[in-house]
Amino acid sequence: MTKQDRDLTALIGSRICHDLISPLGAIGNGVELLQLSGMADSPEMALIAESVTNANLRIRYFRVAFGAAPDNQMIAESEIRATLAPGVDGRKIEIDWQPNGDQPRAAVKLAFLLLQCFETAMPWGGQISVVSDGNHWQIRGEANKLKIEPDLWAMLSTPQPGTDVPPAQVHFALVAPELARQGRTAGVTIADHSISVEF
Length: 199
Hints:
It contains six helices and seven strands; from the N terminus they run H-H-E-H-E-E-H-E-E-H-H-E-E. Helix 1 runs antiparallel to helix 2 (43-66). It is α+β, with helices and mostly antiparallel strands. The two termini are 21 Å apart. The strands form two sheets. The protein has a five-stranded mixed β-sheet, with helices on one face. The protein has a two-stranded antiparallel sheet with strand order 1-3.
């Protein structure tokens, strides 16, 4: 995959997320107006409101993970924490985001891509911690039971052109090209009940 291909992939991701956020926001505003008017006090409207909120947050997550990340752009800590809020989109995993303050968007993009890899390996739940000293990042996940697909995890450090990656696991294929774009490398350690990735 060339640098141009990677940039186009990220730009497409940004465009799709940008275009979806506006109509989702409009639906959310409509639900709020119905709630204020007293017409929305029903389980059906509550379900719609919850679904819109989850969809909004998931799209914001995708915009960071799959969208363009200019080298000098920062992302606010408040946006990161809101996007990773507990209970979003039925998430079974607790994420302890420890870096304080605004962070470089490119580094957070990598972290978000990797968090999706962790979520894939932890379908029954678990805990993930993210730490950073500024340049060096470590993501560690622990769970009673892990679902590890070695070929996918091998892609994080070395591109595997012959590996068939289904759409649901595309995040594994995007990590190595993004690491290369940022001039970084990743170290992966997998044990019986834990996974650790440093970059």
